[in-house]
Amino acid sequence: MGLRPKIGDFFIILIVAATAVILLFSLRQADTEEKIALIIQDGVVLEKIRLDTLEHTEILEYSGEYPGVIEAEKGRIRFKEATCPDKVCVGTGWISKNGQIAVCLPDKILIKITGIGSSEDDTDIWLY
Amino acid sequence: MENMKKIALNGLLISLALVLSYMESLFPTSLIIPIPGIKLGLANIVTMFALFYLGFVSALTVSVLRCLLASLMFGGFSSLLFSLSGAFLALIAMQVLKLGHGKLFSLLGISIGGAAAHNTGQIIMASLMMRNTAIFAYLPVLLLAGIVMGLLTAVVAQNLFCLVDKTHVVNRLG
C-alpha cells in the first residue's frame, strides 16, 4: 500500500531543487542605493520611476482589460488597487529590493525593481 | 476494455478533475504565497490515474477538457493558456518518467517531475504573453512548492491506485 521511493525519485527531487537554487542565485541582483522601478505592459516600458529619490507618493493609473492603480513611495512600489479577478498583484504587496517583481497576469503588466545601469535601463523618460 | 466503459470512465474523470479544480479555486493558495499561478495541483491526481489506467490519449483528453471547462466556468482566457501549456508539459514529462515506473521511479518521482514540468510550462507561457522574461523570478519558488505538492499528490494517488486495484473495476495498464 505504501509508497516505496526508488533511486530515480531522489534524482528528480535533487535536479528540481538544484535548478530552483541555481535560478534563485543567478537571478539575484545585488542591492544598490539607486533603485529604479520599471513598469512594463505587454513588453513595453510604460514608466520608469526613480524610487530612492522619490519625495512624495506617486499614483499611477493603468488601463487594459482590468484597470488598476500602482502606488510608489520612497524606496518601494506596489499594486494598490486592481479590478482583475484574482488580485494576486495586490496580494504581492510592496516590493523594494533589486530583482523583485510584482505581476498582474490578466493585464500583462509587470513592475520590476532594478539598479541603475542594468540592461533594461535604456530609456530617457524619467518620472520623479 | 469495452469502448462504452472507457467513455464513461473518461467522463467521470473529467468531472472529478473539474470538481478538484473548483475546490482549489476556493482554497486561496495565492494569499499565502502571492505568486500568480500557484496552486495545489489536486487535479493532477486524476490525470495520473487516467495515465496509468486508461493511457496517454485518455489522460490528454481529460486534462485538456478539464482546462477548457475550468477556464470557462471559473477562469479567464489568459488562465486557459497557462493551464493548457502547464498541463501539456506535465503530461509529456509524466509519460516519459512512467517508462521507468517500478524500476527507476515510483509515483513520487513521476508526480514531482510532472509538477516541475507544469510550473516550467506555465512560466514559459507567461513570459511569452508578457513579452518579458522577468517573470522567471517566480520559477524557483514554484519549483520548490512543486516538490512539496508533487509529494502530497503522489501519496494520495498511491493510496487511490491500491484501492482501485482491489476492486478490479478497471485494471492498470502495462
Characterization of this structure:
The complex is a heterodimer of chains A (128) and B (174). Chain A contains two helices and seven strands; from the N terminus they run H-E-E-E-E-E-H-E-E. Chain A is of the alpha+beta class and 128 residues long. Chain A has a domain at 36-114: mini-chromosome maintenance (MCM) complex, domain 2. In chain A, the strands form two sheets. Chain A has a four-stranded antiparallel beta sheet with strand order 2-1-7-6. Chain A has a three-stranded antiparallel beta sheet with strand order 3-4-5. The longest helix of chain A is centred in the N-terminal third of the chain and has 21 residues, at 7-27. Chain A is globular and about 60 Å long. Chain B is mainly alpha-helical and 174 residues long. Chain B has one domain (3-167): Arp2/3 complex 21 kDa subunit ARPC3 (Orthogonal Bundle). The mean pLDDT of chain B is 91. The A-B interface holds A 1-13, 16-17, 19-21, 23-24, 27, 40, 42-43, 85-86, 88-89, 91-93, 99-101, 103-106, 108, 110, 112 and B 30-31, 34-37, 76, 78-79, 82, 97, 100, 102-109, 112-113, 116, 126, 129-132, 134-141, 143-144, 146-147, 154-155, 158-159, 162.
In terms of structural class, how would the helical and strand content of chain A be classed?
A: alpha+beta
Would you identify the regions of chain A where 5 or more consecutive residues have pLDDT less than 50? 121-128
Could you estimate the helical fraction of the residues of chain B in percent? over 70%
What is the number of helical segments of chain B per DSSP (H or I, 4+ residues)? 7
Element pattern of chain B in H and E: HHHHHHH
Give the mean pLDDT of chain B: 91
Which structural class matches the secondary elements of chain B? Answer: mainly alpha
Shape of chain A: globular
CATH architecture of the domain at 36-114 in chain A: Sandwich
State the fourth-level CATH superfamily of the domain at 36-114 in chain A. Answer: N-utilization substance G protein NusG, insert domain
Strand content of chain B: under 5%
